[in-house]
């Protein structure tokens, strides 16, 4: 399945580059921007929704990309601490967290490492669950859910998005509090999300495309971080899993789904 997606991504990237556009907008990371960069070193690429542009090899540094790609990155690794902090606030008895991450994505590995490093300070043990396919996800969550006082952190990746309905359905069935990286997970029934406003990134990307069309080089345009981060809470899901969201967390929310 993963191999099939990769082959399609390479095919579509090659077809797009063959059209010789003036600039390409690429969403996401390894499944879109990676194949595009391997297909062209000259056509400018503006990316959005990339978790770790340096770790993925899309740019040499955020300040000086030094190539044909630049754009907007979703996450700094200190957001991993915020995910764990919020999860502990809404589930104070939590002593274990399962971290769903794509082991083949450098960002996924780094984010798990960041969570694992700070977990002891919250009195929590962190363990990884892979996202390769539905069986790995469901088996991993079912095994994790057999013991009490657990919570789930879903790190951003294309695989997490592809399998989001399964993740949401399984964590809800197991009554596991879970935090997600994007608002649309909560719109689809997830409990809580803390992450960047993706629509805002696309608006800002339009400005980068305009500057490139006017002659600027991506190599000289710094990769920008998200400036708008939203906290979204689904009270319907909280009720389903028997969880009461503390008032101080509700007060921080940018949107509450009732």
What can you tell me about this protein's structure?
The chain has 258 residues and is α/β, with parallel strands linked by helices. Strands 5-4-6-7-8-10-11 form a seven-stranded mixed sheet, sandwiched between helices. The model has no long low-confidence stretch (mean pLDDT 92).
Question: How would a textbook summarize the main sheet?
Answer: 7 strands, mixed
**So what's the CATH class of the largest domain?**
Alpha Beta
**CATH topology title of the largest domain:** Rossmann fold
**Outline type:** elongated
Q: Percent helix among the residues?
A: 40-55%
Q: Which structural category do the helix and sheet elements fall into?
A: alpha/beta
- What is the H level of CATH, i.e. the homologous superfamily of the largest domain? Response regulator
Distance between the termini: 37 Å
CATH architecture of the largest domain: 3-Layer(aba) Sandwich
Give helix and strand order, one letter per element, not per position: HEHEEHEHEHEHHEHEHEEHHE
Q: What integer value in Å does the Rg equal?
A: 19 Å
Number of domains: 2
Per DSSP, the total helix count is 11
- If you average the pLDDT, what whole number results? 92
Which percent band covers the strand fraction? 15-25%
pLDDT < 50 runs, ≥5 residues? none
Strand order of the largest sheet: 5-4-6-7-8-10-11
- According to DSSP, the number of beta strands is 11
